[in-house]
């Protein structure tokens, strides 16, 4: 449904289940980064009016997700820890060459965002289906739907602002590259680990 080439091994959920505090901490910062990404797209590409409008709405939605996760942390008697290193995102960034036209840069940032939304959505779906903690499973089910919509929006903007054929070809290459990264992951209790 998301075009991802390599599904996450469901055993990843068993790892997550042993350390809910860790996944919630990492997840809270994923929502913070999604908020920051939306703000930074507004700052970098202010002349794309439709994008700015959608990113403004997205900032509100992602920061509300951050609060939802933070509330879960508080409910369970924990305190938000420091941000975790995201090896997945570090590897993903290596796919995109530096430079290029302004449109190319925009397309790259949109595809990068689309992919992170898609993989997050896939991980949330797995959590919603496999977690023994049904309250938390329901929480992830709702978030999964939001992230699927974000994935569609970012990919749609990339196709709208870039050359559709080139964008589609690049997206396919990116999906293949991402599958190679994922082959070495699924071992940590983080959203993309
Ligand atoms: Fe989110
Ligand atoms: Fe999102």
From TrEMBL:
Q: Which InterPro entries match?
A: Ferritin-like, Ferritin-like_SF, tRNA-Hydrxlase_MiaE
- The protein's superkingdom reads Bacteria
**This protein is called what?**
tRNA-(Ms[2]io[6]A)-hydroxylase
Query: Which organism was this protein described from?
Result: Mariniflexile aquimaris
């Amino acid at each position: 449904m998301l075009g991802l080439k390599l599904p996450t091994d469901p055993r990843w959920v068993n790892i997550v289940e042993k350390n809910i505090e860790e996944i919630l901490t990492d997840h809270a910062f994923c929502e913070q980064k999604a908020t920051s990404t939306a703000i930074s797209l507004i700052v970098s590409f202010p002349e794309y009016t439709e994008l700015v409008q959608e990113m403004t709405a997205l900032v509100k939605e992602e920061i509300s997700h951050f609060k939802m996760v933070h509330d879960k942390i508080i409910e369970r008697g924990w305190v938000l820890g420091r941000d975790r290193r995201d090896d997945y995102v570090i590897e993903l960034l290596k796919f995109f060459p530096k430079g290029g036209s302004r449109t190319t840069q925009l397309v790259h940032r949109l595809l990068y965002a689309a992919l992170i939304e898609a993989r997050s959505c896939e991980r949330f779906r797995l959590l919603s289906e496999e977690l023994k903690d049904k309250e938390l499973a329901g929480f992830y089910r709702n978030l999964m739907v939001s992230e699927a919509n974000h994935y569609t929006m970012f990919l749609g903007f990339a196709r709208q602002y870039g050359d559709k054929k080139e964008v589609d070809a690049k997206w396919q290459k990116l999906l293949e590259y991402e599958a190679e990264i994922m082959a070495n992951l699924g071992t940590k209790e983080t959203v993309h680990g």
